[in-house]
């Protein structure tokens, strides 16, 4: 048993002196042991000081050593075994297969970043050799590489206790970039966090890295979170959560004497456009896929399809009927926490009591506490366009169908959407022209556009963009999932006419690490 | 004669209805014709509306068409001929060779971005092909490219009337990224701005682009600048200027309902470290190079060497004597504007009247108004470390030598530096260990580190970083000079399982534009 109710500061395990934190089993309402005692500014201070010290050596680890460290974290997490899955099940109410899958994804993600580190493209090596004979002025030797920004603060998310938490995508990509990480664990799954944190801590020791490469703190947002973001040694922030939480961190980061980037992935209702031919030809099948995506994980995904947009008519009526039947037949699932359940109920009640909204269906209430009963609602595009509360995210298995008078109104709805993580097109061959007309608008609204699939299920790969315009995220230029996430924690440095003895390995003529380079503007493999 | 005192909104030329703006010849104090009448929110509105409309087509121009447009701008600027140089000389007080060189740099920069656009690496094409047989879950086809952020607001800088102004680096890189540009011209050189603006306007027409791709406005910061940054269609801001100006734009951009990135290049004192062996061996020669760099363009460069750091002793005394002689012998030069001259005088007076600062030398006062007399000052490291006013930028040919007790104190000074654009090492072979000890600190403080050269003179190339940690710039992850500047105006979009008919050219299987791609994590040329 390795759960002791402690924070991890470098290689130490400590207890705080602030308010107690207990995990609650959302399925039973039962309070779980052990007690976590929230940290204070003193723990933030120690973790950041260690991180700053560790940055000096960690940022210059060789590619192989850094990749091995990421792989060691993955092995250590796998080595925890079933204790991790059982604790996560108890703390989150999520079922075993989902958590086993999430563990696989988390470890796969760490290994993907190991391969990215080894390939070295993230260094973006550029060499413009000296041109001593150029006229009117000679050119001196100029070389560029990227280095880590510095220590990074990562906020664990509630809805992915493994993949977006202690050793999730933010942590993996920051470590890959050479940045030490101080995690604020989510209070809803402290035991899961501690188990994973200890795995990272062991990997740090096994790889003989400076201990400050990783720390894990617990506590309230005010005590720990704000102090972390304000700490002068922290150079970037990774966050997945609510819009209010994300914008608060953005404001704190901007108000620092030295502002720093915040990568906050906040809210998205992931519109799905049902184009006419597809709707006509296979509305019921689409409804089936839709209800499956809506209910996945009790709808507690950033990519949950919370909005469906189509032109009204018989085909849409048939879709709504079929989707309504699917929702009615679906059994409620346990939500992640009492707070999330309460917010979901509130969001659904706002919709069902809204004068301009028609409730189509609610799911079956099953047993246990904090149950998410799916909900399907309908509103007209005209009302949607004039009432921005209908664009608010309801975190959970609720979705709103927006009925448009015609294609033109569908275009207007598209144009009025807020920034999104994803937008989906359900389309057949005959819908290509309609899709082409929509696409330029959709590209400006979302980080990912998909056809004939569902937005839930975010592949961890090189081409993924889990990002999008504000308010989906705080920074549309980035992704928080996939290998490109590493770029969030890097900055370029140019070295002009430095003696070979001073040049970093990656920039030396001999190219000892065999990295792809841009030499005088030409790519050399 | 093409100077008419007008703003350019798309293909129109208009006059505003706010306060009059006149260029002043800084060498004579003479007010120049014509009168420019500042624009108001109405002109911002029209320029932004046109830019938004133009974005739809401009962002999807083919690589060749976009590159040709950038080259056409360069030809049109060259086509203005001597009128441009003479007007710029009169408006800025800068000498002919400098402005001819700057014109060459500006046009070379546009052509560099043309080559960057053609090469297509900026699209960062990534393809992760479908893996239908993968278990436990198949992978669907995922493709990524980058697209322009949207219309960009560019603020012309006073100190480079061509290279950092209407068609300077910010405009060139934004246009290269597929973003329309609305420029707020600098009030100190409106005639130069109008001439260049009309050249861009002609290039837009010749290339048959949507007229809103480019507009040029004049007016006070409050009327035009703030309105531009607040306009919901503007998606990014490029700025070179003072720290107060840059931070004001940052605050406005963050306070928008949708915050946007601001790329502000603000202030830097560009420390020069004189390492012991080099100082001992060639202190006088270094002094000569230093005074040359200090006086270049009357010190009105973001990269002017405003701070010299060395260990005290005979060698440093000899350097200070030699540099002092050089400064004493230097003849004053006309500064860009009365305002800049006034600020310089104030900065130099603060130093010369500072109790802890010793004035070593002032240059000769030559003829004409707004003259910059170079200044050289000395302070102890102990005083420098305890008085942050000594780190303030004095924009002009003034520099402060910081005398350190020993190598350790030199390290402390390095650690206390604010973010910088550049840091220079003067070093010989015997200084390598000292340089190695400093380097990790310097990398965290500056965007460019150079050895045995001078920071003035910023090469426009692929490896250049003209950027650095706050307050040198607002965003250390970027550069405003060199081909990597294009990345500031781009964001990634992922396309999942889109039918070939909907895929942008760059992502189609056939790769019709022959762009380098990352396929399943492997680089294909």
From TrEMBL, chains A, B:
Its EC number is 1.2.1.26. PANTHER family: ALDEHYDE DEHYDROGENASE-RELATED (PTHR43353:SF3), SUCCINATE-SEMIALDEHYDE DEHYDROGENASE, MITOCHONDRIAL (PTHR43353). This is 2,5-dioxovalerate dehydrogenase. It comes from the Bacteria. Gene3D superfamilies: Aldehyde Dehydrogenase, Chain A, domain 1 (3.40.605.10), Aldehyde Dehydrogenase, Chain A, domain 2 (3.40.309.10). Residues 16-459 form the Aldehyde dehydrogenase domain. It catalyses: 2,5-dioxopentanoate + NAD(+) + H2O = 2-oxoglutarate + NADH + 2 H(+); 2,5-dioxopentanoate + NADP(+) + H2O = 2-oxoglutarate + NADPH + 2 H(+). CDD domains: ALDH_KGSADH (cd07129). Belongs to the aldehyde dehydrogenase family. InterPro entries: Ald_DH/histidinol_DH (IPR016161), Ald_DH_C (IPR016163), Ald_DH_N (IPR016162), Aldehyde_DH_dom (IPR015590), Aldehyde_DH_Superfamily (IPR050740), ALDH_KGSADH (IPR044151). The keyword Repeat does not apply. GO terms for molecular function: 2,5-dioxovalerate dehydrogenase (NADP+) activity. Keywords: Oxidoreductase. Coiled coil: none annotated.
């Amino acid at each position: 048993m390795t759960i002791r109710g402690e924070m991890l500061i470098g290689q130490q395990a400590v207890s705080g002196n602030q308010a107690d934190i207990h995990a609650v089993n959302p399925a039973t309402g039962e309070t779980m042991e052990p007690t976590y005692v929230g940290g204070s500014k003193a723990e933030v201070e120690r973790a950041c000081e260690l991180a700053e010290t560790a940055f000096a050596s960690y940022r210059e680890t060789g590619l192989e050593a850094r990749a091995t460290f990421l792989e060691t974290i993955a092995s250590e997490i796998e080595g925890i075994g079933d204790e991790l899955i059982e604790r996560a099940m108890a703390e989150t109410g999520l079922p075993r297969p989902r958590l086993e899958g999430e563990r696989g994804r988390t470890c796969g993600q760490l290994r993907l970043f190991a391969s990215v580190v080894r390939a070295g493209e993230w260094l973006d090596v550029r060499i413009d050799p000296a041109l001593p004979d150029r006229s009117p002025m000679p050119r001196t030797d100029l070389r560029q590489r990227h280095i880590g920004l510095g220590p990074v603060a990562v906020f664990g998310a509630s809805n992915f206790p493994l993949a977006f938490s202690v050793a999730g995508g933010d942590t993996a990509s920051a470590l890959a970039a050479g940045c030490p990480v101080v995690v604020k664990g989510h209070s809803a799954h402290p035991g899961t966090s501690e188990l994973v944190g200890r795995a990272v801590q062991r990997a740090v020791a096994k790889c003989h890295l400076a201990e400050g490469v990783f720390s894990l703190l617990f506590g309230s947002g005010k005590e720990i979170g704000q102090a972390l973001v304000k700490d002068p040694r922290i150079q970037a922030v990774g966050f997945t959560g609510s819009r209010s939480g994300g914008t608060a961190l953005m404001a704190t980061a901007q108000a620092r004497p030295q502002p720093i980037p915040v990568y906050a992935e906040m809210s998205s209702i992931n519109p799905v456009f049902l184009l006419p031919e597809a709707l006509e030809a296979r509305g019921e099948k689409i409804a089936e896929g839709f209800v499956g995506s809506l209910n996945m994980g009790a709808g507690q995904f950033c990519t949950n399809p919370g909005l469906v947009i189509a032109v009204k008519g018989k085909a849409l009526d048939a879709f709504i009927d079929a989707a309504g039947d699917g929702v009615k037949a679906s059994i409620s699932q346990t939500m992640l926490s009492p707070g999330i359940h309460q917010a979901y109920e509130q969001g659904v009640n706002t919709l069902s009591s809204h004068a301009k909204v028609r409730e189509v269906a609610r799911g079956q209430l099953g047993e246990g506490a904090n149950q998410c009963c799916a909900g399907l609602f309908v509103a007209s595009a005209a009302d949607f366009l004039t009432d921005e509360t209908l664009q608010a995210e309801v975190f959970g298995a609720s979705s709103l169908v927006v009925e448009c008078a015609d294609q033109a109104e569908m275009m207007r709805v598209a144009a009025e959407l807020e920034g999104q993580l994803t937008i989906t097109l359900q389309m057949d061959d005959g819908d290509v022209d309609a899709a082409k007309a929509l696409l330029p608008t959709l590209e400006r609204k979302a980080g990912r556009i998909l056809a004939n699939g569902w937005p839930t299920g975010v592949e961890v790969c090189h081409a993924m963009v889990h990002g999008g315009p504000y308010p989906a995220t705080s920074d549309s230029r980035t992704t928080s999932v996939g290998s490109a996430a590493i770029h969030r924690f890097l900055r370029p440095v140019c070295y002009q006419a430095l003696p070979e003895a001073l040049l970093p390995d990656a920039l030396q003529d001999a190219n000892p690490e065999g990295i792809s380079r841009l030499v005088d503007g030409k790519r050399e493999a």
